[in-house]
Design brief:
The structure holds 2 protein chains of 2 kinds.
Chain A lengths: L1 H32 L9 H10 L1 H35 L1 H16 L2 H12 L4 H24 L3 H9 L4 H9 L4 H25 L6 H10 L3 H29 L1 H4 L17
Chain B lengths: L17 E12 L2 E12 L3 E5 L6 H9 L6 E6 L2 E2 L8 E3 L11 H5 L1 H6 L4 H13 L15 H14 L4 E5 L7 H18 L2 E6 L2 H7 L2 E6 L4 E7 L14 H14 L2
Parallel strand pairs in B: 3-8, 3-9, 6-7, 7-8
Antiparallel strand pairs in B: 1-2, 1-4, 4-5, 9-10
Helix pairs in contact in B: 7-8
The chains are: A mainly alpha, B alpha/beta.
Chain lengths: ~270, ~260
């Protein structure tokens, strides 16, 4: 019981300490530079602004979170399916790979403008931008996972009489889970950036990104920092969520034995 | 020059009917002759070791027998049927354990069932019984990474057995293990073989291992890969560790070494 609590508390304490260090550095920066609050607001002021404006900010956070989450899921799904198709069919991989690399070489800000022209001020261009950022690390990692399957393992599956579909489901697909989560974790921290860029370009609905622009224009620096704090929480929260899911879905990485629900137990003979 | 015998060595008379016939097998990789006119009859329930230095075509031979590789000429006959180029007729195990890390020990043992028709509760119960009988009972729900190399090879062996093929090709299965573990594994394998009445073709480059395990030893030499000699191991079974130092054992070893390092 004690060791279990300790094991869980360890990483948690490290997070608390890390965040405290960031806040202390921020406060020190304010003191050492002696800059006024409209240039760098001290942490306390930023948090106070956040608290006072919470009714409004919570709505904006909801909007940005919505764009981030839906775009993220869209990008992850497209990336995963695309990688599977590319991994299974050589021609698809040859044809699509150059297009993928080009898609990531174009600055994301440059893509945002034409998207608005095509799709308007609604949520669609935001979703596309977020998905655009997220799908690439997913594709690259899942492709690596598929390629990492041992040739001898595939031969063995063939000798055991495994058909294409079953071999894919039993040998290849699970080999992608770990790499998939590597891609998803990278995507999780970037996704919120995509939503903000989307909102900056043009938006009929207010989000944290649009608030950030307005606050900046009004010299409401504390407001800028409050929005920044919320965006950070979205980014870190997404990462932790994906990380937690990864631990749940890849028990063989962290445990010596299968979790209870997956354990085999002898059953009394029925016949 | 097929199946040459050394003077004084009794001709190997298969006590049981022939299970597997390798007939005039030749394999070329471009100009390189990997196997040259290799023929071998293996009796039902026999334990045959194939011994040779690297490059003598041992693994090529296994790939042809398993059906993974097409020979340039010759054929493989199993139970009187031509099974050349038909993968999946015999069991196959490599030096690499090829465990699926996301499957438990039990899940890995029942792999063949999962790959062909989906593992049933009965498959799992049978696999668990097999694993329990041969010392893996406490590890059924373990993931492979939590096991030692020797234990993982035991699981790989159980997986090969559970696949149900009567003939098993074992390609240096203990090659990556340390000497003590290997000796334990050899005794364990002999016990399995005695209980389950399978026919085993076992590739190794370890002379002691071949003599300790085999009914017959097929010595192969490289460039081109061919059978240099077939020796019958006249050591009583079950074989205790003491046979490793008997005169018969040492005599056989000397004879084999002359072929390998002449």
């Amino acid at each position: 019981m004690n060791t279990r609590f300790g094991a869980a508390a360890g990483p948690f304490m490290i997070w608390v300490v890390a965040m405290a260090l960031i806040l202390i550095s921020w406060q020190l920066l304010v003191w050492v530079t002696g800059l006024p609050a409209y240039v760098i607001p001290p942490p306390a002021l930023a948090f106070a602004t956040l608290y006072e404006n919470w009714p409004r900010l919570s709505v904006l956070t909801g909007q940005t979170l919505h764009e981030t989450a839906v775009g993220y899921l869209l990008g992850a799904l497209i990336g995963f399916l695309l990688a599977l198709a590319m991994g299974q069919i050589r021609v698809v991989q040859r044809l699509v790979m150059p297009a993928l690399i080009i898609s990531q070489a174009v600055p994301i800000v440059a893509i945002a403008a034409p998207l608005v022209i095509v799709f308007g001020f609604g949520i669609t261009p935001k979703l596309i931008i977020v998905a655009w950022i997220v799908f690439f690390p997913v594709v690259v990692n899942v492709l690596d996972g598929l390629a990492s399957v041992d040739r001898d393992m595939l031969n063995l599956a063939r000798l055991m009489g495994g058909g294409g579909l079953r071999t894919f489901a039993i040998v290849k697909l699970p080999a992608c889970i770990g790499p998939l989560f590597s891609g998803l974790k990278i995507g999780a921290t970037y996704a919120v950036t995509g939503a903000v860029i989307g909102e900056w370009t043009a938006s009929s609905k207010q989000g944290l990104g649009t608030y950030l622009l307005t606050a900046n224009a009004q010299m409401n620096t504390a407001g800028v920092y409050a929005a920044m704090l919320l965006l950070t929480v979205i980014g870190v929260g997404s990462f932790l969520l994906v990380f937690g899911l990864e631990v749940l879905m890849t028990p063989w990485r962290s445990r010596a034995t299968a979790p209870a629900w997956a354990q085999w137990k002898p059953s009394p003979p029925t016949s | 020059m097929r199946e040459p015998r050394t003077a004084g060595e009794p001709a190997a008379e298969p006590r049981a009917p022939t299970k597997l016939s390798i007939e005039n097998l030749s394999v070329n990789f471009g100009p390189v002759v990997a196997l040259s006119d290799v023929s071998l009859d293996i009796a039902d329930g026999e334990f045959v070791c194939i011994l040779g230095a690297s490059g003598c075509g041992k693994s090529t031979l296994f790939n042809v027998v398993s059906g993974l590789l097409q020979a340039n000429s010759g054929k493989i006959v199993l139970d009187g049927q031509d099974v050349s180029n038909r993968p999946g007729q015999v069991g196959y195990m490599l030096q690499k354990d090829l465990m699926l890390p996301w499957r438990t020990v039990l899940g890995n043992i029942t792999l063949a069932a999962s790959l062909t028709r989906g593992a049933t509760a009965r498959d799992r119960a049978e696999a668990a019984e097999l694993a329990r009988r041969y010392g893996l009972g406490d590890f059924l729900n373990h993931y492979p990474h939590a096991l030692s190399g020797g234990m993982r090879q035991r699981v790989a062996m159980m997986r090969t057995i559970a696949a149900g093929r009567q003939v098993m090709l074992l390609d240096e299965p203990f090659g990556a293990l340390d000497a003590q573990t290997r000796l334990g594994m050899q005794q364990w394998l002999l016990q399995l073989w005695r209980d389950l009445n399978r026919t085993i073709l076992f590739v190794t480059h370890d002379v002691d291992e071949a003599i300790f395990l085999a009914d017959r030893i097929v010595v192969m030499t490289p460039r081109p890969g061919r059978i240099a000699d077939i020796l019958t191991v006249d050591l009583p079974r079950p074989r205790p560790l003491e046979v490793l130092t008997t005169d018969t054992f040492v005599g056989l070893k000397r004879q084999i070494m002359q072929h390998l390092y002449h």
